Fold:
Amino acid sequence: MCNAIAGGDPDETISSRAGKARAAGREWGCILCAFLGWVATLIAGQPTDHCAESIETNEGSRAIIPDGD
Structure:
């Protein structure tokens, strides 16, 4: 829901969108992925790159504000 409110594709997760933004060098993507990765690492109990693992290549085409292109 937060992704859709922020102008993203309603079918894409915020983790996927942030991962694409980070790969494109967008600062907000880097910051959000660092935070999400930290939280996912705490939950999983082992290091993880949550955003990279969450990228949905088939989603994001309906974003009002595209990220990662």
In short: Residues 24 and 68 are 5 Å apart (CA to CA). The chain has a mean pLDDT of 87.
